[in-house]
Write a structure and sequence with these properties.
The protein is of the alpha+beta class and 318 residues long. It is built from 8 helices and 17 strands. Helix 6 crosses helix 8. The relative contact order is 0.25. Bound molecules: 2-oxoglutaric acid and fe (ii) ion.
């Protein structure tokens, strides 16, 4: 099984490839699917145009080929689906902050599959960064430092500061998003379970580096982040409705550019179950805390307005 089976076109020199002439579905042939899987490990994010036929059920069926599906831990799924997270700009869903999906979870998703449903006339691109390349770009002394760092990831961080807004919508969203609080310690460098590559595990769910005073932690994070997000390690995708992007969530971060004002944008995501990260010295990530705030009356019935707000504003911290 190999890339030769695919009509594959790298989009940049370091990350991202478009695959043409494949009609995604749950019935994809074994060989084609195997080649796509291999390509994902190499290119980190794959793009497929013209997949309008998929629909929600088709997206879930295709996703099932990759492994077990997982719903978002705190945000209700889209009505009528088992696992889909809908991000709708009308309700403020704009993930304009660098992150890897759901890293507050100990075994965060291995991959995400995103389908564009409504796309602005201009703007609303998404950018992905290659976190394996970012590690390789670190000077050897910084690699050694990073190899030994651990970070606390949580879904309970300062949303207003991160997104530079203090809106009522964001407050309500935050309540849903943190109705259960997760705290996990991940190594800053994990060994990719399939490729053996070392990748940086950072992004907006990181609260602090362990063992450093907060200001030092902030400086170090800024330094490491600068290697992740340098333009040479990124690919930017101009969406059309019906496009599908799949990323290796163990080797990338992403950022949804919020430059389209009042134009409408809707995307839907499915995530595939992942495994617990392992550090370069063989230690596994540690789940510290899963605190359900249900008793504090923060739990929201799935049909309520707030739940709808949560599911449709999920993008800001997906
Ligand atoms: O809106 C996008 O393009 C990406 C949103 C996001 O962060 C995600 O789907 O995980
Ligand atoms: Fe995301």
């Amino acid at each position: 099984m190999s890339e030769a089976l695919l009509d594959l076109h790298p989009v940049t020199g370091r990350i991202g490839a478009e695959i043409r002439d494949v009609r995604l579905s749950g019935d994809l042939g074994k060989e084609t699917f195997g080649a796509i899987r291999q390509a994902l490990l190499k290119y980190k994010v794959l793009f497929f145009r013209g997949q309008q036929h998929l629909g929600d059920a088709g997206q879930e069926a295709f996703a099932r080929l990759w492994g077990d599906l997982v719903a978002h831990p705190t945000v209700p799924v889209r009505d009528g689906t088992g696992y889909l997270l809908e991000l709708d700009s009308v309700h403020g869903g704009r993930a304009n902050s660098w992150h890897t999906d759901v890293t507050f979870d100990q075994a965060y998703p291995q991959a995400s599959i995103l389908r564009a449903v409504v796309v602005p006339h201009a703007g609303g691109d998404t950018v992905w960064a290659n976190t394996a390349q970012a590690y390789l770009d670190l000077p050897p002394a910084l690699q050694q430092l990073a190899d030994n760092l651990w970070a606390l990831h949580t879904n309970d961080y300062d949303y207003a500061a991160r997104f530079n807004t203090d809106s009522a919508g964001l407050k309500r969203y935050r309540e849903i998003f943190t109705s259960t609080i997760y705290e996990t310690e991940h190594p800053v460098v994990r060994v990719h379970p399939e490729t053996g590559e070392r990748t940086l595990v950072l992004g907006h769910f990181v609260k602090k580096l362990l063992g450093y005073p907060t200001p030092d932690s902030a400086h170090l994070l800024k330094l490491l982040d600068s290697y992740v997000t340098r333009l040479e390690n990124t690919v930017r995708w101009r969406w059309s409705a019906g496009d599908v992007a799949i990323w290796d969530n163990r080797a990338t971060q992403h950022y949804a550019i919020n430059d389209y004002g009042d134009q409408h944008r809707v995307v839907r995501r499915v995530t595939i179950a992942g495994d617990v990260p392992v550090s370069v010295d063989g230690r596994r990530s540690v789940s510290l805390n899963v605190k359900n705030k249900a008793q504090d009356d923060v739990r929201v019935p799935a049909s309520s307005d707030a739940a709808h707000a949560a599911s449709s504003t999920a993008a800001v911290a997906s």
